[in-house]
Recover the amino acids of this structure.
């Protein structure tokens, strides 16, 4: 079996802020640790339909972010509908599920609403619709930006802990893309995908002796079984067969697949707890452990936390 990482995760199961809290690291005053950006500038906003009042985008990947809607007085019978949108590139935005503020009317204006952003995109912004009359409001995106000279080290420790847990459990903890190479199509009517938590199969391709690569068609040439947290499969449809061809001498068959939990919130707490223990050890013993205390075995608490999530499938 040969698997190669194609696209690394864009976020980790635990955040820098969560690790600092676990390690009881204080990076400064409250004022030092937060910043605020006005997405929709406060003021009197005239009637505008279809969420056409578009706020400034703010990068939030790796931060803890809070979005506030600060309402002043509404005009007579005026209403404000506001929501949070998210984006990978600060260009194409889509609505974030759970990001709609309660409609502001003359009955509940002069108030502040807050929504914590828990999505996975790099940028967020607010958009609003104003109906019937001019309304006074603005939105702000607040980020927890606590930093220290050790932030780069702590981020590296988080990544190392996640990769170590993935080695132990043989599964991805968060969304990533891999290529699975085979020397030939199997004799069985399925290809079992390593690592569990299969989200999608991006492609199944094969290369003949002349170097010509062919892409198989999903649902016609093969079906995909996700199988929850267990190993997924690429399966032949009824009466289907694998292609017959003279194979290229190196890695003739490749399956590209995406796997892992899709959000931090879905990663089981036992896995996060194990990661934090590993991070604590790497942080406290950054110069290396003394051989007499290492005893050549893994942390038993970590192993016990991870035992039930280990995949035992053979490949």
């Amino acid at each position: 079996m040969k698997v190669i990482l194609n696209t690394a995760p864009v976020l980790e199961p635990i955040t820098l802020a969560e690790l600092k809290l676990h390690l009881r690291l204080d990076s400064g005053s409250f004022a030092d640790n937060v910043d605020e950006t006005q997405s929709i500038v406060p003021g009197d906003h005239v009637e505008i339909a279809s969420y056409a009042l578009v706020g400034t985008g703010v990068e939030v990947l790796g931060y803890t972010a809070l979005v506030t809607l600060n309402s002043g007085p509404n005009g007579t019978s005026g209403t404000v509908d506001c929501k949070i949108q998210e984006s990978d590139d600060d260009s194409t935005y889509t609505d974030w599920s759970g990001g709609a503020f309660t409609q502001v009317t003359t009955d509940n204006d002069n108030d502040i609403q807050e929504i914590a952003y828990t999505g996975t995109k790099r940028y967020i912004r607010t958009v609003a619709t104003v109906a019937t009359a001019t309304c006074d409001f603005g939105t702000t995106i607040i980020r927890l930006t606590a930093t220290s000279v050790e932030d780069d080290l702590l981020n590296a420790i988080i990544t190392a802990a996640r990769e170590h847990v993935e080695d132990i459990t043989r599964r991805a903890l968060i969304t990533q893309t891999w290529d699975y190479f085979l020397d030939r199509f199997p004799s069985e009517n399925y290809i079992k995908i390593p690592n569990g938590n299969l989200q999608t199969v991006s492609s199944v391709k094969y290369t003949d002796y002349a170097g010509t690569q062919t892409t198989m068609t999903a649902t016609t040439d093969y079906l995909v079984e996700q199988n929850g947290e267990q190993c997924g499969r690429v399966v032949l449809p009824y009466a289907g067969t694998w292609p017959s061809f003279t194979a290229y001498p190196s890695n003739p068959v490749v399956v590209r697949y995406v796997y892992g939990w899709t959000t931090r919130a879905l990663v089981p707490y036992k896995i996060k707890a194990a990661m934090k223990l590993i991070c604590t050890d790497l942080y406290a013993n950054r110069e290396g452990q003394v051989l007499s205390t290492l005893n050549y075995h893994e942390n038993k608490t970590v192993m016990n936390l991870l035992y039930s999530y280990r995949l035992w499938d053979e490949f």
Notes: The first strand starts at residue 2 and ends at 7. The helical segments are 16-23, 30-33, 151-169, 269-284, 291-294, 300-306. DSSP finds six helices and 17 strands in the chain.
